Amino acid sequence: MAKKQGVQDGASTATKIWVTLLILFGLAIIGAFTAAVITLFNGAGGGYGANVAVIPVEGVLVANDDGSFGSGVAASDTLLEDIRKAEGESSIKAVIFRINSPGGSAVASDEVATAIRRMQKPSVAVIREVGASGAYWVASATDHVVANPMSVTGSIGVLGSYLSFGRFLEHWNVTYNQLISGEMKDVGTPFRELTPQERLFLQQKLDAIHEYFLQSVAENRNMSAEQVRPLADGRFFLGSEAKENGLVDQLGGEEEALDWINATIKAEPVTVVYEHRRSLLDVLTSLSAQRSLTPAAALQAMQEESVPMAR
Amino acid sequence: MRDLYASLRLPPQRVYVKDASLLRRLGAFVADLLLLDFAVFSSFGSLLLGSFDIGQALREGFTLSPAAYAAAVVMALLGLAYFSLFEYVLGQTPGMMLLNIRAVNVTLWRAAVRNAYMVPLFPFPLLWVIEPVHLALRKTRLLEVISRTRTIEYISY
Question: A210, A298, B24, B57 — which has fewest CB within 10 A?
Fold first, then answer.
């Protein structure tokens, strides 16, 4: 074997161990360094040199995502985190909110809309198929709203609903017993009919939320409450109709949004999408953490259903 | 101890050399991959798996982000370096040491050729199919034939 070779056959065990450790250590160092460089160039989760963050608002707006498999929700805590990230990154000069949502929790919608309003950087909402109710609330908080002529938008209203099992239980001779102190403590329980006072009480709450929603939209869109009120009866508008009545600034899609940003920041926009992908480990963890279907859990779920929804 | 063996007057140990068996090669390869994963690839975990959403993959098909693609390329090159360096320097990777097999007639260039299946460029990934088939049919890998090297195992008796 005349060819040049390494230590090979003649190597003692100690030499082999040292050489093995040396090679592994060297490769590990190179690997760690390269991974760090890729992470650095990758930035927040997308392209190097990006100056426009795209934050997807897709699915029903909720306060927090329970991590269900393929749940398709837009959680406000995640969106707030993205907004903070976009604000904090000096390379990001503008933000696009890519909206495809029927709305959702009034609180979640307000949280996101307020955070957008407080942003120092220009923001654009691009309403794709649906940007209605709470999602429109979010869109209205941006500096510029773009929608497709056939997008479904508007739907400025609030609903609160739940299933009532009072008569069902009565039919099966089941008695609902709940001891309360305070007349309105068990308002909205699904196990009995609402009293007229309770119905009025709940309606007043929904009306108050509706008024808050309306005022926020008016403020966001630089319109008076009187201008918005006729549009805020809960009906939805197509994008073209919304443009006519001032709920939308421009018809189009992401290209138009990028043109607007180009004109605003005076720079060629390069986008980076803030995505929150879920690993297999996350899915498995969330599945194991899911509540089991017990009567108590079902009861709680029914009560959660009565949360006012801007949708 | 040496005197004790000498006093026993045992017949000299005979060593039979043959091409490494399929099972030993496979075992060594798996052991090397585990070691690589643990010692070298751990830094790439978040880049590769962090961008993988199983729900999205099932709904929209498997796609690789640019960062994950870059990570995969670097990992393949590190894998190539791992196998080539060990086989050149020691004639054995740690997995081969465990399974008592070794590569012979190896130079640095030949080591790189015999591990060319790790190169993340077309047509080299095709070797992931060709190599096992060639190994099963001819008892040796195609890249070993090209690089004029062999993988052997010692049997003492």
Answer: A298
Is residue A114 included in any domain, yes or no? yes
Residue A109 resides in a domain:
yes
Catalytic residue (choose from A76, A105, A123, A133): A133
Nearest CB among B39, B46, B90 relative to A24 is that of: B39
Least confident of A98-102, A178-182, A198-202, B27-31: A178-182
Has residue A32 been placed in a domain? no
Q: Which of B40, B46, B108 sits opposite A28 (nearest CB)?
A: B40
- Whole-prediction pTM: 0.59
B72 touches chain A (CB under 8 A): no
Nearest to A55 by CA among A121, A3, A107, A149: A121
pLDDT in tens, B35-64: 999 888 888 876 766 555 566 566 556 666
Is residue A116 one of the residues assigned to a domain? yes
Q: Do A33 and B116 touch, CB atoms closer than 8 A? A: no
Query: Closest Cα of chain A to B58: distance in Å?
Result: 9
> Do A225 and A218 form a contact (C-beta atoms < 8 A)?
yes
Q: How many domains does chain A have?
A: 1
Task: Kindly report the nearest CA distance between residue B10 and chain A, in angstroms.
Answer: 25
Count CB atoms within 10 A of the CB of residue A68.
14
Q: What does A92-160 look like in DSSP terms, one character per residue?
A: --EEEEEEEE--EEHHHHHHHHHHHHH-SS-EEEEEEEEEETHHHHHHHTSSEEEE-TT-EEE----B-
CATH code at position A143: 3.90.226.10
Question: Taking CB atoms and an 8 Å cut-off, how many pairs form between chains A and B?
Answer: 107
Joined tokens for residue A249: 């600034």
DSSP class of A62: E
Q: Which domain holds residue A117?
A: 48-155+222-299
Tell which residue, B76, B67, B56, has the closest CA to residue B117: B76
